[in-house]
Design a protein that fits this description.
The chain is an alpha+beta fold and about 120 residues long. The chain contains three helices and nine strands.
């Protein structure tokens, strides 16, 4: 379980320990920094590399009503990388990462291992 931080205007900024992402078709959306988002390391990496996995990336404000329309919702942080969200209130989401996102996370892990071995 985790909590979502929501601005007084009703926009989602992040969870208590991670950045939030929503997948709409092939578009990954994360709230913009202006909504109080912490510029997480993994968030930045996904913003930079998601197009390599065939995704479009968008930084735009999200409200809870937007998440009900999402195909998947994920959280990213430096400890757990990318974790699927199972539900938010009554809205339920797939419990696994799409193959393209799982491959993207494997790419991140491989790149990190290569740097350590240098």
């Amino acid at each position: 379980d985790d909590a979502l931080y929501i601005t007084p205007e009703g926009r989602i900024s992040c969870s208590s320990v991670a950045n939030l992402w929503a997948l709409f078709g092939q578009t990954l959306v994360t709230p913009p920094r202006e909504d109080g988002v912490v510029a997480g390391i993994i968030r930045g990496w996904v913003l930079e590399h998601a197009t390599e996995a065939g995704f479009r990336v968008s930084e735009r404000s999200l409200e809870l009503s937007d998440l009900r329309q999402a195909d998947n919702v994920f959280l990213t942080n430096s400890l757990r990388l990318m974790v699927p969200v199972l539900s938010i209130n009554a809205a339920e989401f797939r419990a696994e990462l799409p193959n393209e996102l799982a491959a993207l996370m494997k790419q991140l892990i491989a790149g990190t291992a290569a740097i350590r071995n240098q």
